[in-house]
Design a protein that fits this description.
The complex is a heterodimer of chains A (327) and B (526). With 327 residues, chain A is mainly alpha-helical. Chain A has a single domain, classed as Orthogonal Bundle (MetI-like fold). Chain A is built from 16 helices and no strands. In chain A, helix 4 packs across helix 16, helix 6 packs across helix 10 and helix 7 packs across helix 10. Chain B has a four-stranded mixed sheet. In chain B, 42% of the residues are buried. The chains are: A mainly alpha (327), B alpha/beta (526).
């Protein structure tokens, strides 16, 4: 990483400039990478942000893009409307619960799987498990939800049939059509779908641990659990903290597995609506279906603000608690 | 950690993140392009319609995911192209959000056929007013005053005319015009009724008793399966409710929301009792697909099937085609002395000529042809001579069974009714001897016409529209809690709670506005 080391004692501005360009030339490939990333962010993340103006205006889609600037200001009316909505409490509770439960279960799962796989001695078995566990990542949610019908439907679902056959239940469980099962269904399917994928990154972290540490520990008489606790786990800590901060930043979207919207939208129906309606699906409904873009923009803006607060506070806490942080 | 490890770790992190990003991108690309109609390059440069030249190709978006015809083909479509020089490139909606999305992105096709977004497209920024196009390109296209008045927006223009509309006088003058499929019906298994000893089916109580006996004797059968769009109408009418749950009813010259009509609570109690007795599946309320109920019914897994008046006829044809041996029979249209059907309809769906239209002249002339006597009969009955001949009594002698949906859809009969009227459509139902025809004749007896109620229409982007949408969305969520309540007390409590929510959202304001509009517009029909 020699490009990071700046030579000391640069005197004249001229010399400094020349040096700058020399260094720039040397690093041009890296600058190209960074530049592309910045352009990407500018086009897809920053430039659409002027649309936030909508949240404070009475915008109608038929006025086109310029309407965003010409329409009337209404201040915080849309925000007030959302907060006073009869479903506001339910929607916010659902969003927070779903997000919280998902992080609680989907975050530790890949870490555990990575440690388990690391301990598996049979290489073939390890590869097999890894492949099988990360393949679901490539199935889209639409397909997962489609498949889930043949598993969980009251009428034809394999799971219900099996449980009934074994005499564990005497009435089929309305897993897909009851507010009581929606969170479990979402968290369960998210763990199944994304656990293997995120295991890869933790396995990479484990692979980076110096094997001599294990040998030394073994010599000192550390057992398997002790080695996991004192070597594997501390070796992964940096990665875990980075991933955790990213997770918490996107917690309202479902954390590292994302998919809050997809699940609420696809698994959601009029019956499980009391637990499946979340901020994003609500914004989608009022925004696209009812064409109330201003109101939808205001709703999403509230969510973005909460996310920003969460990422800063988790970063702060991580810095305090473990010394490592994202920024 | 040493540097090498860090490098390895971060490079793997980068790979994962890039992959995640790429997969996310590809996903959204796929969704965005799906079903977006593209202007065909061959049509863009072609001449306006006239005979002998290549037909103009116009893109048409049909805002109805259930639409049974998906392509511009078959004898009826060919004949229309021959007569008008217009060919359509058809896209059927994948869901009810696609058209709103297209409006938002400015990706509208040449023509849009919709019922759910009539008010939103009636906007000079999105569509051409028909009155302008008629004045400019088709001065001899005459539309009657009532239809124009119904569709005229606050800006003085009308942007479409809905099909399937007929005034009470028009219906009265045409005794062979009966009405259309837009009326509810329930079919029951004839063979099972026989096995039960043909119990009487004259009242709602009779029906409930039969459902109970079916459940007892055939525990594996679903007593009643309902089409997702036809769950409520039949029982609403039997309970004496004068409209749909998002509609208006009139008492002594005053208008109120149907939700508040006292009979509505009775209706909810009845539906809830069906659920608590185990006659309907909870899942039924979550169906997103309108084929599930048909499969239950025609595969013999359900006793009763709730859909439209043609349900018995069309189920029977399907069962026969599948090699089944049982038959369905339609329940009487009235199962109680309270039964009422208020026709406040202004028609079903309308065609819009959007601002993106590449040939407005050909488009309005195309509609003018569909609106002619010849065009109306061609779309509704099929090709004269091939599919029907005219009976001098005043109705067509059809050479096919209009309930045979495979035949009708396969030939493109009826569904190209981008412009039509209720009288012509009503004649398609006049086939002496069919169950549907009989049911529709029964229905004529208890149908009351109050078209003025239909004029209570919210304008796009108006505060009333927002208010009504919010209330209707709330009802959509809350009513399921009433249907699926565990006891009658809970159902009543949930109903009251729903009303309270509606009041809180501003129902009274909406009702006041509706009364004002109603008083202003009701004279149109007198």
């Amino acid at each position: 990483m020699e490009w990071n080391t700046a030579p000391a004692n640069v005197r004249s501005t001229n010399g400094r400039q020349a040096l700058f360009w020399k260094r720039f030339k040397k690093q041009k490939l890296l600058h190209l990478f960074v530049g592309l990333g910045i352009v990407f962010l500018l086009i897809f993340s920053y430039s659409p942000m002027f649309g936030i103006l909508m949240a404070f205006k009475d915008y109608s889609i038929s006025t086109g893009i310029q309407g965003i600037f010409t329409s009337e200001w209404v201040g915080l009316d849309h925000f007030k409307e959302f907060v006073n909505d009869y479903q506001f409490g339910t929607i916010v509770r659902n969003t927070l619960m779903l997000s919280f439960l998902k992080v609680l279960f989907t975050f530790p799962a890949p870490i555990l799987l990575a440690i388990l796989l690391n301990e598996a001695k049979n290489l073939r078995f390890k590869r097999f498990v890894q492949t099988v566990s990360y393949l679901p990542h490539f199935i889209s949610w639409v397909v997962v939800v489609g498949i889930s019908f043949s598993f969980f439907s009251v009428d034809i679902g394999v799971v219900n049939k099996a449980l009934m056959g074994l005499g564990i239940i005497d009435k089929p469980l309305a897993i897909l059509t009851s507010p009581n099962y929606f969170w479990g269904l979402s968290v369960g399917s998210a763990v199944w779908k994304e656990m293997g994928w995120w295991t890869i990154i933790f396995l990479a972290a484990i692979a980076g641990i110096n094997p001599s540490l294990y040998e030394a520990a073994e010599m000192d008489g550390a057992g398997r659990l002790a080695r996991i606790r004192h070597i594997t786990f501390p070796g992964m800590k940096g990665t875990i903290v980075v991933v955790l901060i990213l997770t918490i930043g996107s917690i309202l979207g479902g954390g590292l597995v994302g998919s809050n919207f997809e699940q609420a939208f696809l698994f959601g129906n009029t019956i499980n609506n009391p637990t499946s309606e979340i901020v994003q699906t609500y914004a989608f409904k009022v925004g696209l279906k009812d064409g109330r873009f201003s109101y939808a923009a205001a709703i999403d803006l509230i969510q973005s603000v909460i996310s920003v607060i969460l990422i800063f506070s988790s970063n702060f806490i991580a810095k305090r608690a473990s010394g490592s942080s994202l920024f | 950690m040493n540097r090498l490890v860090l490098k390895r770790l971060y490079s793997s992190l980068v790979v994962v993140l890039v992959l995640a990003l790429l997969s996310a991108c590809s996903k959204s690309n796929g969704g965005g392009n799906q079903g977006t109609p593209e202007a065909s390059p061959s049509a863009a440069g072609s001449e306006p319609a006239s005979h002998g030249k290549d037909p103009v190709e116009l893109s048409l978006f049909i805002d109805a995911p259930w639409y049974p015809v998906k392509e511009w083909k078959g004898p009826v479509a060919d004949k229309i192209t021959e007569k008008t020089g217009v060919k359509l490139k058809v896209t059927i909606a994948t869901d009810d959000k696609q058209l709103p999305l297209m409006i938002a992105s400015g990706d509208l096709p040449d023509l849009v056929f919709t019922y759910a977004n009539v008010d939103r497209l009636s906007d000079s920024k999105l569509s051409y007013p028909w009155n302008e196009l008629i004045a400019n390109y088709a001065p001899d296209f005459k539309i009657d005053k009532t239809r124009i008045a119904i569709h005229t927006m606050d800006d003085g223009n009308f942007y479409t005319v809905r099909n399937a509309f007929a005034t009470q006088e028009e219906m009265a003058q045409n005794k062979y015009s009966l009405g259309n499929d837009g009326n509810p019906g329930i079919a029951v298994r004839e063979d099972i009724l026989k096995e039960l000893g043909n119990p009487p089916l004259r009242t709602l109580d009779d029906f409930v008793k039969v459902l109970g006996r079916v459940k007892e004797k055939y525990p594996d059968m679903i007593p009643l399966t309902m089409d997702k769009d036809w769950m409520e109408q039949y029982f609403l009418q039997q309970s004496g409710v004068e409209g749909l749950l998002d509609g208006w009813y009139e008492r002594d010259g005053k208008v109120d929301y149907v939700l508040r009509q006292p009979e509505t609570l009775e209706y909810f109690k009845f539906m809830n009792s069906l659920y608590r007795s185990g006659f309907i599946l909870a899942e039924n309320f979550a169906y997103t697909n309108d084929q599930i109920d048909d499969q239950y019914a025609t595969s013999g897994k359900a006793f009763a099937h709730s859909h439209t008046v043609s349900v018995a006829d069309s189920d029977n044809i399907k069962v026969k085609n599948n090699g089944g041996s049982f038959t369905f029979k339609l329940l009487p249209s009235a199962l109680s002395d309270k039964t009422v059907s208020v026709s406040s309809g202004l028609g079903f769906a309308g065609t819009f000529i959007t601002k993106n239209n590449k040939d407005p002249e050909a488009s309005i002339k195309f509609i003018q042809y569909l609106a002619s006597e010849e065009g109306k009969k061609l779309t509704m009955f099929g090709v004269e001579g091939v599919h029907w001949t005219w009976n001098d009594e005043g109705y067509p002698n059809l050479k096919y069974d209009p309930s045979d949906s495979d035949f009708v859809n396969g030939n493109g009969i009826k569904w190209w009714y981008l412009y039509n009227d209720g009288v012509t459509e009503g004649m398609l139902s006049y086939v002496p001897g069919t169950q549907k025809t009989q049911a529709l004749m029964e229905r004529k007896a208890f149908t009351v016409y109050k078209p003025a109620l239909g004029l209570i229409q919210t304008q796009p982007d108006s505060p009333e529209k927002t208010l009504k949408t919010k209330i209707d969305e709330m009802v959509k969520n809350e009513k399921v809690k009433i249907y699926l309540a565990k006891s009658e007390e809970e159902a009543v409590a949930n109903y009251n709670n729903m009303l309270k929510n509606a009041e809180k959202l501003g129902l009274q304001k909406l009702v006041d506005w509706a009364n004002e509009t109603y008083q202003k517009k009701k004279d149109l029909f007198q």
